[in-house]
Amino acid sequence: MKNREKSTDPGLSAAERKELRSREAKEAIADHKEGQRALHSNRERLRAERLAREAAAEPMLHPAPELPDNTPIDSVQFSTRIRTALKAAGWKTVGEIREASDATLLRLPDLGNGSVSHLRETLGLPSRDGVRSTG
After folding, report:
1. Residue 59, pLDDT score
2. pLDDT (0 to 100) of residue 2
3. Percent of the chain with pLDDT over 70
4. Is the domain of 73 the same as that of 53?
5. How far is CA 96 from CA 10, 68, 71, 105, 107, in A?
Protein backbone atom coordinates (compact mmCIF):
# COMPACT_ATOMS: atom_id res chain seq x y z
CA MET A 1 0.00 0.00 0.00
CA LYS A 2 1.08 3.55 -0.75
CA ASN A 3 0.73 6.38 1.76
CA ARG A 4 -1.16 8.41 -0.81
CA GLU A 5 -3.88 5.86 -1.27
CA LYS A 6 -7.35 6.87 -0.19
CA SER A 7 -10.15 4.70 1.04
CA THR A 8 -12.09 5.66 -2.09
CA ASP A 9 -9.43 4.37 -4.51
CA PRO A 10 -10.79 1.57 -6.73
CA GLY A 11 -9.13 -1.81 -6.61
CA LEU A 12 -8.64 -1.92 -2.84
CA SER A 13 -9.87 -4.84 -0.86
CA ALA A 14 -12.43 -4.31 1.89
CA ALA A 15 -9.71 -4.81 4.53
CA GLU A 16 -7.46 -2.24 2.85
CA ARG A 17 -10.33 0.30 2.64
CA LYS A 18 -11.15 -0.28 6.30
CA GLU A 19 -7.51 0.21 7.32
CA LEU A 20 -7.23 3.40 5.21
CA ARG A 21 -10.52 4.80 6.61
CA SER A 22 -9.24 4.16 10.11
CA ARG A 23 -5.94 5.93 9.36
CA GLU A 24 -7.76 8.84 7.66
CA ALA A 25 -10.06 9.19 10.67
CA LYS A 26 -7.11 9.21 13.08
CA GLU A 27 -5.35 11.86 10.97
CA ALA A 28 -8.51 13.97 10.81
CA ILE A 29 -8.94 13.75 14.59
CA ALA A 30 -5.29 14.72 15.12
CA ASP A 31 -5.68 17.65 12.69
CA HIS A 32 -8.85 18.75 14.49
CA LYS A 33 -7.17 18.59 17.90
CA GLU A 34 -4.21 20.60 16.61
CA GLY A 35 -6.58 23.19 15.15
CA GLN A 36 -8.44 23.40 18.46
CA ARG A 37 -5.16 23.90 20.33
CA ALA A 38 -4.14 26.67 17.92
CA LEU A 39 -7.56 28.31 18.21
CA HIS A 40 -7.45 28.18 22.02
CA SER A 41 -3.90 29.54 22.06
CA ASN A 42 -4.85 32.41 19.75
CA ARG A 43 -7.98 33.17 21.80
CA GLU A 44 -5.93 33.31 25.01
CA ARG A 45 -3.30 35.54 23.36
CA LEU A 46 -5.96 37.96 22.12
CA ARG A 47 -7.64 37.98 25.54
CA ALA A 48 -4.32 38.76 27.25
CA GLU A 49 -3.64 41.58 24.77
CA ARG A 50 -7.14 43.04 25.33
CA LEU A 51 -6.75 42.89 29.12
CA ALA A 52 -3.34 44.58 28.86
CA ARG A 53 -4.82 47.37 26.68
CA GLU A 54 -7.70 47.85 29.11
CA ALA A 55 -5.35 47.96 32.10
CA ALA A 56 -3.17 50.57 30.39
CA ALA A 57 -6.13 52.73 29.34
CA GLU A 58 -7.47 55.51 31.48
CA PRO A 59 -10.62 54.62 33.41
CA MET A 60 -13.84 55.63 31.70
CA LEU A 61 -15.71 58.51 33.32
CA HIS A 62 -19.46 58.90 33.59
CA PRO A 63 -20.74 62.08 31.96
CA ALA A 64 -21.32 64.57 34.79
CA PRO A 65 -21.49 68.32 35.34
CA GLU A 66 -18.24 68.08 37.38
CA LEU A 67 -16.12 66.98 34.42
CA PRO A 68 -13.52 69.59 33.45
CA ASP A 69 -13.86 71.13 30.00
CA ASN A 70 -10.53 69.61 28.91
CA THR A 71 -11.76 66.03 29.56
CA PRO A 72 -11.23 63.98 26.36
CA ILE A 73 -14.44 62.66 24.81
CA ASP A 74 -12.73 59.26 24.52
CA SER A 75 -12.55 59.11 28.33
CA VAL A 76 -16.28 59.62 28.86
CA GLN A 77 -18.88 56.84 28.73
CA PHE A 78 -21.11 58.27 26.04
CA SER A 79 -23.30 55.97 23.96
CA THR A 80 -21.73 54.69 20.77
CA ARG A 81 -24.07 56.86 18.69
CA ILE A 82 -23.11 60.05 20.54
CA ARG A 83 -19.39 59.24 20.63
CA THR A 84 -19.36 58.45 16.88
CA ALA A 85 -21.16 61.68 16.01
CA LEU A 86 -18.86 63.81 18.17
CA LYS A 87 -15.70 62.18 16.82
CA ALA A 88 -16.94 62.48 13.21
CA ALA A 89 -17.31 66.23 13.84
CA GLY A 90 -13.69 66.28 15.00
CA TRP A 91 -14.51 67.25 18.57
CA LYS A 92 -12.11 66.08 21.22
CA THR A 93 -13.19 67.54 24.60
CA VAL A 94 -16.24 67.95 26.81
CA GLY A 95 -15.73 71.72 26.59
CA GLU A 96 -16.42 71.63 22.85
CA ILE A 97 -19.78 69.99 23.55
CA ARG A 98 -20.59 72.57 26.20
CA GLU A 99 -19.78 75.44 23.84
CA ALA A 100 -21.96 74.09 21.02
CA SER A 101 -25.52 75.25 20.52
CA ASP A 102 -28.31 72.71 20.27
CA ALA A 103 -28.67 73.60 16.59
CA THR A 104 -25.00 72.75 16.03
CA LEU A 105 -25.38 69.45 17.88
CA LEU A 106 -28.55 68.61 15.95
CA ARG A 107 -26.67 69.07 12.66
CA LEU A 108 -24.31 66.24 13.60
CA PRO A 109 -25.18 62.96 11.86
CA ASP A 110 -27.33 60.62 13.97
CA LEU A 111 -27.93 63.11 16.81
CA GLY A 112 -31.53 63.99 17.50
CA ASN A 113 -33.39 65.85 20.20
CA GLY A 114 -33.06 62.92 22.61
CA SER A 115 -29.29 62.71 22.23
CA VAL A 116 -28.89 66.47 22.61
CA SER A 117 -31.13 66.48 25.69
CA HIS A 118 -29.11 63.62 27.14
CA LEU A 119 -25.85 65.51 26.58
CA ARG A 120 -27.27 68.66 28.15
CA GLU A 121 -28.64 66.76 31.17
CA THR A 122 -25.58 64.63 31.86
CA LEU A 123 -23.15 67.50 31.42
CA GLY A 124 -25.32 69.77 33.57
CA LEU A 125 -26.16 72.38 30.95
CA PRO A 126 -29.51 73.94 30.12
CA SER A 127 -30.67 73.77 26.54
CA ARG A 128 -29.46 76.73 24.51
CA ASP A 129 -32.06 76.47 21.76
CA GLY A 130 -35.17 75.18 23.45
CA VAL A 131 -34.66 71.43 23.04
CA ARG A 132 -36.81 70.00 25.77
CA SER A 133 -35.39 67.73 28.41
CA THR A 134 -36.60 64.13 28.28
CA GLY A 135 -36.46 63.76 32.06
Report:
1. 74
2. 46
3. 88
4. no
5. 76, 11, 10, 10, 15
Res 4 pLDDT > 90: no
Q: Which residues pair with 61 in a beta bridge?
A: 76
Same domain, 63 and 27: no
Q: What is the SS3 assignment for 119?
A: helix
Residue 61 backbone dihedrals phi, psi, to 5 degrees: -105, 145
Quote the domain boundaries for residue 90: 59-135
- Residues 128-135: contacts with CB under 8 Å, at least 24 apart: 128/101, 128/102, 129/101, 129/102, 129/103, 130/102, 131/102, 131/106
Beta carbons of 69 and 95 less than 8 angstroms apart: yes
